[in-house]
Each structure stands twice: as C-alpha cells, then as structure tokens.
Amino acid sequence: MIAEIGLAVLWMAAALAVLQLVAGVLALKPRGANLIDVVRPVAVMQGVLVLIAFACLVSLFLTTDLSVKLVAENSHSAKPFIFKLAGTWGNHEGSMLLWVTIMAVAGGIVALIEKRLREDTLIATLAGQAFVSLGFYAFLLLSSNPFERLPEPAPEGAGLNPLLQDVGLAFHPPTLYVGYVGLSIAFSFAIGALVTRDVGPAFARAMRPWVLGAWIFLTLGITAGSYWAYYTLGWGGWWFWDPVENASLMPWLAATALLHSASVLASRNALRAWTVMLGVIAFSMSMVGTFLVRSGILTSVHAFAVDPERGSFILALLAIYIGGALTLFGVRASTVTEGSRFSFVSREAALVFNNVMLCGILGIVLVGTLYPLLTEAMGVKVSVGPPYFNPVSAIFAIPMLLVLAVGPLLRWRQDRLNRITMPVAIAAVLAAAVLLGVEVLAPQIKVLPLLGLAVAVGVAYASFLPLRGRNLHRTPLPIWGMVIAHFGIAVALFGMASESAFSTERLAAMNPGDSQQVGPYTLTLKNIAPVAGPNWTALEATVAASYAGGEPAILHPQARTFSNPPGNRTESALKTRWNGQLYAVLGEEGEDGRWQMRFWWKPFVPLIWLGGLLVALGGLLALLGRVASDIRRLVATDKIAYRRQRQGR
Amino acid sequence: MSAIKPKHQRLVLLVVALIALVGAGLLAAFALRNQASYFYVPSELVAKPPEQGRAVRLGGMVEKGSIRTRPDGVTIDFTVGDGKARVPVRFTGITPDLFVEGSGVVAEGRMEGQTFVADNLLAKHDEKYVPREMKDMSAQQVKQVVAETK
C-alpha cells in the first residue's frame, strides 16, 4: 500500500510541477495576471508532496518490504538500521528520488520565504525551477520508478554492495545532492532574471544564500567523500582524479566562482552578465556530473546501473536545459546593462581574475575528464591521471592563490598597490622562508609540493590580514566567514603538499612478533585473529604502534568478508596525531604463513579534511551573517511600514 | 589608475576571459598528448611496445599457474596474456581481493626492459564493477581467452 501511495503522490507532484510551469508562464503575460497568486502555493504544495513520496520510500526500506523491486534488489533484512536508511539513496532510483525531493523542497522554500525579489522575477524563477524538475520527474516516473512492485515478493533482499556499507553512505550522497540541487535554484534565479530582464543586485542578493548553502554542502560532500575513499579503499590516497571525483569537483569550482561574482554583483552592481553565465555553468556542471556518474558511461561503485537508456535520458535533459539556458543567455545578454565600473587595481578586478582562474581549472578538469570518453569513441583507450591534472591545474591554481592572498586587502572600485605593500611583503617573505627552509632540509622534494607548502604558509598568514585594524567584536560575520574559508584553503593545501612530499610507506610480509619501521613509528604485529560483525566476518590483526619509542598504541586493521551480498573489503586502521596519521592495512596470508602488512606515515594529512571543514565553516558564518542581516532588514521595513500606517491615521 | 570606460571594460573582461579559457584549452590539449596513459592488450604491447618508463595500462587475463611470490613476501611476478601474446608483470603490494589466476586484470605501470612493472592492479570487483577497458572484453573475448589459456 505504501508503495502505491508513494507513486500516486509522486504523480500528483509532477502534475503540480506542470501547473507551476504553465501558471508561471501565463502569469508573466498581462492577461494572466490573476494567476500570479497560484504559483507560490503550488510550489510549496509540490515540495510537501514529494517529501511524502520520499518518506514512503524510506519507510519501505526501513521495513524491508521485499515485494518492492528496488528494496529487494538493494536491501537485506539483516542489514543494520543505518544502512537500511542510507540504502534508500544507495541506488539509482532512490538517489534520483532524493534529487527530485531536494529540488522540489528547495523550490517550495523559495516560494515561501523569498520577499525581496521583484514578484515577476520570482514567478519566472519558480516556473524555471518547475521546468527543470519536470525533466527529472519524467526520468523518475518513465524510466526509473522507485516504487515498482515485483510480481512475487522476493524471499530475501540482494543486499548492499559492501563498499557502500559505511556510515559515509549516510552523509556523503545527501550532502552532495543538496549541493548539486541547490545550484539548480541558482540556475532558476538566473533564468528568471534573464526572462524578466531584472539582472541586478536584488537578484544577486536573492541568489546568494542559495549559492552559499549549495557551496557549503558541496564542500562538505567532497571532503567527506575524500575521507571516505581514503580510509575505505585501503590505498592510502585521498584524491585519485577519478571521473566521479571530478564530477563533484567541477560544480564546486563553478559554485566558488559564482559565489564570488554574486558577491560583487550584490554589493557593487558589477559583473552582471558574468554572474548569470556562471549560474548557468554551475548547474550545467551538476548535470554533467550526474550524467557522468549515473549514465553508466563510467564504471565505478557510483554507477549503480549500466543502462544506456538512462544515459541517453540524462544526456537529453542536459542538452535541453543547458542548450536552452545558453540560447536564452545569448538572446538576452545584450539586454543586461553594464554595471558599475572598476579599476584594474581593485577588489573587483582581483575577484574577476580569480573567477577566470577558477574557470580555467574547471576547463582543465572537464577536458581531462571527457578526453578518455572522446578517444574511446574513436577506438583508442586512454586514461588520464595525476600526471596531467596535478601540474596543469597548478598552473592556474598558484596564481589564483597568490591573488587570493592579496585581493581581500584591496578596496572596492579603485585602490593603490603601495597602500598594501607592507603586509603583502611580510606574507611573501614568510612564503620565501618556507620555500628555502624546505629546500635546504629536504632537497629531494618535488616542485609542486614545495610550492604548495610555501604558498600555503603565505596564504594562511595573509588570510587573517583583512582583520587588521578592525574591532574584532564588531567585524561582520561574512568577513569572518571569508577569513576562515581562505585560511581553510591554506590549511588543506598544506596538508596536500605535506602528504605528497613526506609520506613514507612500508610494505612487508610479517610473522606475529616481527617489527617494522615507518616514519617515526615502530610497528609490531602481535597476532591475527578472526572476529565477526552483524553481517560480516573478518580477520583482524593486532598491531602495536610505538611513536618514537613511546608507549605503544594498539591498531586493528581488518580484512572483512561480507555475506549479503558476498564481497570483501579491507578495513584500514588509523592512528591520528597532531602532526600526522599512521595508516595500517592487512593484506593476505602468503604461502609461507607470513601476513602482508602495509603501513603509511602521512605527516599532516588530516589537515586536508580539517581545511575542508574550515572552508565549509567559513561559508556557514557568511550564510548566517547574510540571513541575519536580511531578517534585520525585514523587521526594520515592517516597523517603518507600521509607523507610516499609524502616522497616516 | 583611472577607471576605464564601461564599454571598453566589458570588452577587456571578455578578452581576458577568452584568452584564459583558450589558454587553458590549449594547455590541456598539449598536456593530454603527453600525459594520457594508453591502454594496451598484451599482443599490442609486444607488437608495438611503448617507450620505456612511459605510464601505460595493460589489460588481459592472469595466466594460470603464473603467479609467483618472491622471498620478500610482497612482490609477485605473473604473466598477463590475451591468447596471442604474453607479458611478464611485476607488482609490489597487496593484490586486490579478486585478483586470481585466470581472471581479468588491468595493470597500471610502465615497461622496464621486457617486464611490465605495475604500480597498481585493478581487478574485476564484482559483476557490476568491471574496469572500463575490460568491459568490451568480457562480452566477447574473456571467455574465449580463458578457454584458450586453460
């Protein structure tokens, strides 16, 4: 019964999306003005209905209703609760329903609370949002119905891929999806503003919290995904330039650029066309990412079903939305009037420079990701990895980071460089000192990590400079947000550079009692014993890890074997210190009875994810600051209106 | 420095952005020609070996009875074949769970002398996860290759 309710509610929501689109379009014509009051409630109702449909699917998974095809294929009654819940979106259909849910709920929230935008622009935005979500409704209902029943209930579910049975699954996909779909709101705002020729600061202010929110979630999703891959794959790497990782990085790059240009538009009324363009590009990258990940064109744990029909469907949606948006942009770009001007030495100019560099990196990543697909179509199989991505993106990233250090110190509109020579010189001297110091102490270091360390220290110092001369209690939250986010970038960069420069690895076959040395650690294999969990059994090694001869800590790396479905997973063991992380993996037993063990000592590697969290925290502070000032403004305007009313009496 | 005229400013911005993006594209194209790692099957690798030390990928079947572990316990030698040619491979590390004789593998690495030195092995994970290069093979060739190598 619940499955049928879910399906019916989903169809009703799709019908409301049609109504929202039609009413929205008609309401923009003079004759349809009486429809203008329909659009907002319909958008809210659509959000509520989809939320109900999603709740139905969650309850089917929680009760493991095996008469539903999706549940039978992806769940299992013996699975722990958290994975039953997360299993809802650990598959193609469920994840697309999550996508539509977030999209409709976000649209509903816009309809409910957005009051600053011109009413016709808001109606056009909601119509645009309905148009975009309709494509995904069609995709869900016509080719990936999550509520499909089996003719006969299955005796038992097929279970969830062991690689996905991790708490990471509960957080990583929903956070990324909120990010992806949040960008769809930015896209709809851009479309709405283009349609009603209302590209200006009000549009940027309405869009900015959504971009900020989406960007925070993307940052968290990427950070969580990176850490998940790091500890679950047992390869000791935190970023592989895998197409699926790139698919999440590209929207982040575009959203970062959009965030900054929307700021310029909101506060300085410049970069109008550019901001609209970035709004379109950012959501395009979300769609490209979804296409790459969900079409089965790439194979990875992220590609749930290799189904060419679905790939073509997403490709068609991509072509319609992106092609349509770019056409609209082409037609209307000339009507976007020029904004305020600024000098080459100004904060705007620095932001433009960084925008262009971010787009350059985006282009590099996009080309590198699509290149193997292109050559494969021509019959040549290639793969593109770190030797391409690292140096080529660094060519754009390093100038960008240098300007990141200087830009926030510049004044809007026009400034003189000699005003900020002193603080910038100190940052440069710091960076140079690190460069020389590391080069002397570790002469074998490669160029990129060396530059990374130096730039990271310089940027970390410079990121706090915008606070000098300010009263820290009265500094607005968005400034704190910027400072912390920029500092987070430096922290993450330091972790990355340190990891790639100073990691040490030890691979050995060991008997119980044997010892190995890796970095400052001495590791002794105590024993290997079998252990069991709810739906897995494992061989577990007990390893005593002594840091620089001190009291040993005990680590338990495991090799797990899952039963439903059958599969294996290495469970690495980590020991985190302030200055790095020890990483231990248990391999196989050799013919001579020795056990393969692999250890890494990775100095400062946790800074990578700490930096990611700081960046997200910075975004959160900025978002809170913006929302708080919006609320204050609303309250103030209400008061003024009230007073006027009373005086009028 | 004085602010320039709005019309010119928009043009300058456009030109700067275009130059950067075209530059990025050219750079990408140039770097890809040098850095993309090509995929070989053993017969191609033997017929037209890539230059020594260049990163390439080798895909094929792990021949039956070819896996030998060296005394250090972590380095293995094995042979990858496609029914027409065979290539000796050396790998140091923990092998993937489904790396067994007679199954498909993609090795990332480089030629050193006559031996392919692998940095990383990608084995078939499960029915749903096959290395992309093995996909075509599993449909037509893998069974045949396995039959031939038995």
TrEMBL record, chain A:
Domain named Cytochrome c-type biogenesis protein CcmF C-terminal: residues: 315-626
Tell me one GO molecular function of this protein: lyase activity
List the keywords (alphabetical).
Cell inner membrane, Cell membrane, Cytochrome c-type biogenesis, Lyase, Membrane, Transmembrane, Transmembrane helix
Q: How does it sit in the membrane?
A: Multi-pass membrane protein
Asked if the record carries the keyword Membrane, the reply is yes
Q: Where are the transmembrane segments?
A: 6-26, 38-62, 96-113, 122-142, 177-197, 209-229, 249-266, 273-293, 313-331, 352-374, 394-412, 424-442, 448-467, 479-497, 604-624
Keyword Zinc-finger among UniProt keywords:
no
Localization, per the record, is: Cell inner membrane
- Please give the InterPro entries that the UniProt record associates with this protein: CcmF_C, Cyt_c_assembly, Cyt_c_biogenesis, Cyt_c_biogenesis_CcmF
Q: Which residue ranges does the record assign to the Cytochrome c assembly protein domain?
A: 89-295
Fetch the NCBIfam families from UniProt: nrfE (TIGR00353), PRK10369.1 (NF007691)
Q: Its biological function?
A: Required for the biogenesis of c-type cytochromes. Possible subunit of a heme lyase.
The family annotation for this protein states: Belongs to the CcmF/CycK/Ccl1/NrfE/CcsA family.
Its protein name is Heme lyase CcmF/NrfE family subunit
The organism of origin for this protein: Novosphingobium cyanobacteriorum
Automatic annotation (TrEMBL), chain B:
Does the entry feature the keyword Cell membrane, yes or no? yes
Q: Does the keyword Repressor apply?
A: no
Q: Where does the record say this protein resides? A: Cell membrane; Membrane
Q: How does it sit in the membrane?
A: Single-pass type II membrane protein
Q: Which UniProt keywords apply?
A: Cell membrane, Cytochrome c-type biogenesis, Heme, Iron, Membrane, Metal-binding, Signal-anchor, Transmembrane, Transmembrane helix
Instruction: List residues traversing the bilayer.
Output: none
**SUPFAM superfamilies cross-referenced by the UniProt entry:** Heme chaperone CcmE
In this UniProt entry, which residues form the Cytoplasmic topological domain(s)?
1-10
Q: Which InterPro entries match?
A: CcmE (IPR004329), CcmE-like_sf (IPR036127), NA-bd_OB-fold (IPR012340)
| First-listed, main subcellular location of the protein, grouped into a coarse class | membrane
What Pfam families does the record tag this protein with?
A: CcmE
Q: Where does heme bind?
A: 125, 129
Segments on the Extracellular face: 32-150
Q: Which family does it belong to?
A: Belongs to the CcmE/CycJ family.
Give the protein's function: Heme chaperone required for the biogenesis of c-type cytochromes. Transiently binds heme delivered by CcmC and transfers the heme to apo-cytochromes in a process facilitated by CcmF and CcmH.
Q: Which HAMAP family match?
A: CcmE (MF_01959)
From the Swiss-Prot or TrEMBL record, give the protein name. Cytochrome c-type biogenesis protein CcmE
Give the species.
Answer: Novosphingobium cyanobacteriorum
